[in-house]
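Input C-alpha cells:
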C-alpha cells in the first residue's frame, strides 16, 4: 500500500490517543489497544460481517454480469437483423459462398491485397518528402486504410463463422438427444425426464463456461512449473471472453437458427433494453464495487474518536440478544465511534503542520501523453486545498467535493490503499484485466475528471466505464478517471515530497522484500532523476542482511540534491532524508524475537494477509517502535549537542527544539566527516 494510506492511519491513531488522554486514559497504552481491537478490520462484526462480505462478493459479480450481458445480447440482435436482411443464410442448406457476407469478405480481401501491393510504391514516392507533401499524405492515408480494411476483414470473417457455429450447436443437441434416448430405456421415465430437464447442451455449455474461470484460477495459483503456470494463467484470462461467446452462441442459436423465432427475439430485445436502462440510469459502479465496504472498514479502524459507537437498529438488537446489555460504566467511556465523513477541505483548519498529501495512481493505459513513457498511469494527489496530477490537471478540493460529494478523507484513504484492482498502473496484469473486472476485484474508484468538471443530471459512472476497465480503454479525457493504490506507480509516496522540494523527509518502507532489495526506493530514485532532475544519495550498506538475516541498522540517512553541484564548493541545494525499512537488528524485545522464530519470514510476511492475530500485530508494531526510537538514541544525538556552545542542560541533552536540529544531529553522526555537505 502507498504511504499515503499510512499517513491517514497514523492521523487517526494520534487523534484517538490525544482524546483518550484528555479523558483519563493512558495514551501510551491506549494507542496500541485501540488498533489491536481492529486487527480483523476487514471482517469486523463476527458472522454478520462475514455475511456482508459474502453478500458483497455475490452481488458485485452478478451486477457486473448483468451490466455486461447486453453486449452478447446486442450481438444476437445484430445477427438476427443480418439473417433477416439476407446478409447471412437463414438455414444450413444455403452455401456460405452464395451469401452477401462472403461477397463482402472477398471484396475486402481483394482490396486489402491490392493496397498491400501498392504500399511499397507510395513509400518510395514519399521517401525524403516533407510530411505535408501529397506523397506523404497519400502514404499515411493508405497505411491507415489498410489497418481499417484488415479490421473489416476480420469482422466479416467472424460473421461467416456464425452460421457454422450455430449449425454445429444444433447438431450437438440433436446427437445428444439421440444418445440419451439410446442410453435410457422407456421404463426409466423419471430418470429420462430428469436428464431431459437438467442435462441439456445449453446448460452444459453454460455451466462449463461459468465454472472454467474458477477451476483455471485455482490450477494457475497452485501450478509449480513456470510453463504450466503461464499457460493456465493465459487460459484463465481467456475464460472471461469465452463466457460472453457462450452466451452469444446459446441465445443466438435459439433465436435465429435455423429460422428466426420472433417470440424469442422479442424477449431478447426486451431484456437487453431493460438491462441497458437499468445500468445506465440506476447503477453507480463505485457502489457495487468492494470500495465502499473497504472504505468503511478503514474508517472504523483508523478514523476514530472517543464517542459511543453508532450501530443500526438491527445490529443493536442482535448484539443485545447474542451478548446481553453492557452496563459497565468503564466500557461505555472506552467506546469508540467512527468518523465516516470528514471533508478533505475541512482537514487541519488551523493551518498547522502536518499538511496531508494522500497519494493515488490514476490509470491511463490508453493515454497518448508521451511523458507517461509506458507507465500506463500517472500520479494523482488528494490534499486539503487541491487535488489532481500532472497529466489530468488540478482542481480546487472544494470544487471537487461539489462535483462528487462522496470524496472525503475516508474515500481518499481507501483509494490510496486499493491494492487489489483490475488495473494496477505499472503492475497491471493485462491478460487478466477482463476477468478480474468481471469477478469484481475492483478496490479502485471512478472519480469525476477534474478537467471535465461538469456535473450531469445523474453523476455516476455507468456500464461504459466497466467496459473501459475491462479493456483498459482509459485516458485523461474521459468523463471519469480510474484511481487505485498509489503504490501502483510509486509505493513510498516520496515522489510528491520531492516535487515540492521538501528539505526534511522521513520515508517508511513497509514493502515485502525478504532480500532487502529496496526496490521501491530504487524506482522512486529513477522517477526523481528522470522527471524532476533530483538525485538521491543514500548508503544502504547497514541494511544489508548478514548470515543470520539481520541488518546493522533500521534506517539509512542520506541527502537529496535538488540542484546541480557547484564546481567550486561541490555542494548544491540540499535536502535530507531518513529511510526506515522493515529490518531486524537483534535488539528487539524477546516476544518479537520469539515471533520471528515461529515465523521465519517475519518481518516480510505476505501483504496479502490482512487478517492479523494479536501476536503478529504486536510484533510488527513493536518493531516499528524500535526502528523509530533508534533515531533518537543518545549516542547519535547527544555528542552533537554536547559540542555546541548553546547545548541544552545535561538532563535535556536529547531534546530538540526544531526539526532542523534533529536532522543536523543525524547528519553529524551518520554521515562521513569529509562529506561535501559539511563544507557547504
Amino acid at each position: 500500500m502507498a504511504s499515503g494510506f499510512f499517513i491517514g492511519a497514523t492521523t487517526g491513531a494520534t487523534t484517538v490517543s490525544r482524546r483518550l488522554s484528555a479523558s483519563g486514559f493512558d495514551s501510551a497504552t491506549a494507542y496500541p489497544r485501540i488498533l489491536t481491537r481492529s486487527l480483523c478490520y476487514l471482517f469486523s462484526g463476527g458472522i454478520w460481517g462475514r455475511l456482508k462480505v459474502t453478500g458483497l462478493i455475490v452481488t458485485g459479480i452478478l451486477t457486473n454480469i448483468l451490466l455486461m450481458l447486453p453486449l452478447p445480447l446486442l450481438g444476437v440482435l445484430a445477427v438476427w437483423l443480418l439473417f433477416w436482411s439476407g446478409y447471412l443464410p437463414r438455414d444450413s442448406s444455403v452455401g456460405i459462398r452464395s451469401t452477401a457476407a462472403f461477397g463482402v469478405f472477398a471484396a475486402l480481401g481483394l482490396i486489402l491485397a491490392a493496397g498491400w501491393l501498392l504500399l511499397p510504391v507510395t513509400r518510395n514516392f514519399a521517401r525524403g518528402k516533407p510530411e505535408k507533401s501529397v506523397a506523404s499524405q497519400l502514404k499515411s492515408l493508405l497505411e491507415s486504410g489498410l489497418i481499417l480494411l484488415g479490421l473489416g476483414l476480420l469482422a466479416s470473417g467472424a460473421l461467416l463463422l456464425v452460421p457454422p457455429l450455430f449449425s454445429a450447436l444444433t447438431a450437438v443437441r440433436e446427437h445428444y438427444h439421440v444418445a440419451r434416448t439410446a442410453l435410457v430405456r422407456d421404463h426409466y421415465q423419471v430418470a429420462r425426464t430428469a436428464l431431459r430437464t437438467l442435462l441439456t447442451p445449453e446448460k452444459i455449455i453454460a455451466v462449463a463456461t461459468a465454472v472454467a474461470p474458477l477451476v483455471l484460477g485455482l490450477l494457475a495459483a497452485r501450478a509449480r512449473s513456470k510453463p504450466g503456470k503461464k499457460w493456465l494463467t493465459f487460459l484463465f484470462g481467456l475464460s472471461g471472453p469465452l463466457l460472453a461467446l457462450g452466451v452469444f452462441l446459446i441465445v443466438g442459436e435459439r433465436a435465429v437458427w435455423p429460422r428466426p423465432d420472433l417470440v424469442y427475439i422479442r424477449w431478447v430485445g426486451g431484456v437487453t433494453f431493460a438491462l441497458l436502462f437499468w445500468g445506465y440510469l440506476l447503477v453507480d459502479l463505485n457502489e457495487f464495487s468492494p470500495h465502499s465496504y473497504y472504505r468503511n472498514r478503514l474508517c472504523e479502524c483508523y478514523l476514530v474518536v472517543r464517542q459511543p459507537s453508532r450501530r443500526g437498529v438491527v445490529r443493536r438488537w442482535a448484539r443485545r440478544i447474542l451478548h446481553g446489555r453492557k452496563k459497565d460504566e468503564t466500557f461505555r467511556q472506552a467506546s469508540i465511534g467512527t468518523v465516516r465523513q470528514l471533508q478533505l477541505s475541512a482537514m487541519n483548519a488551523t493551518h498547522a503542520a502536518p499538511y496531508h498529501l494522500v497519494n493515488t495512481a490514476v490509470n491511463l493505459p490508453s493515454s497518448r501523453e508521451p511523458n507517461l513513457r509506458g507507465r500506463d498511469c500517472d500520479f494523482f494527489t488528494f490534499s486539503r486545498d487541491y487535488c489532481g496530477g500532472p497529466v489530468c490537471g488540478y482542481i480546487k478540493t472544494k470544487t471537487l467535493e461539489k462535483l462528487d460529494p462522496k470524496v472525503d478523507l475516508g474515500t481518499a484513504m481507501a483509494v490510496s490503499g486499493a491494492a487489489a484492482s483490475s488495473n494496477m498502473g505499472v503492475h497491471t496484469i493485462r491478460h487478466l484485466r477482463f476477468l478480474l473486472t468481471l469477478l469484481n476485484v475492483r478496490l479502485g474508484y471512478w472519480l469525476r475528471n477534474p478537467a471535465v468538471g461538469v456535473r450531469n443530471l445523474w453523476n455516476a459512472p455507468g456500464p461504459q466505464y466497466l467496459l473501459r476497465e475491462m479493456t483498459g480503454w482509459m485516458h485523461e479525457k474521459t468523463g471519469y478517471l480510474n484511481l487505485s493504490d498509489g503504490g501502483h506507480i510509486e509505493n513510498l509516496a516520496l515522489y510528491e515530497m520531492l516535487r515540492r522540494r521538501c528539505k526534511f523527509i522521513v520515508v517508511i518502507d513497509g514493502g515485502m522484500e525478504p532480500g532487502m532489495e529496496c526496490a521501491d526506493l530504487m524506482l522512486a530514485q529513477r522517477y526523481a532523476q528522470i522527471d524532476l532532475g533530483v538525485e538521491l544519495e543514500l548508503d544502504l550498506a547497514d541494511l544489508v542482511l548478514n548470515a543470520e538475516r539481520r541488518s546493522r541498522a533500521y534506517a539509512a540517512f542520506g541527502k537529496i540534491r535538488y540542484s546541480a553541484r557547484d564546481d567550486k564548493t561541490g555542494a548544491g541545494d540540499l535536502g535530507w532524508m531518513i529511510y526506515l525499512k522493515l529490518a531486524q537488528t537483534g535488539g528487539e524485545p524477546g516476544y518479537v524475537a520469539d515471533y520471528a522464530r515461529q515465523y521465519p519470514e517475519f518481518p516480510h510476511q505476505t501483504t496479502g494477509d490482512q487478517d492479523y492475530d494479536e501476536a503478529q500485530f504486536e510484533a510488527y508494531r513493536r518493531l516499528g517502535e524500535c526502528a523509530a526510537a533508534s533515531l533518537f538514541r543518545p549516542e547519535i544525538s547527544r555528542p552533537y549537542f554536547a559540542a555546541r556552545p548553546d547545548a541544552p542542560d545535561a538532563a535535556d541533552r536529547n531534546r530538540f527544539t526544531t526539526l532542523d536540529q534533529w536532522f543536523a544531529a543525524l547528519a553529524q553522526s551518520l554521515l562521513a566527516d569529509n562529506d561535501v555537505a559539511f563544507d557547504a
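The first strand starts at residue 304 and ends at 305. The CA atoms of residues 186 and 192 lie 8 Å apart.
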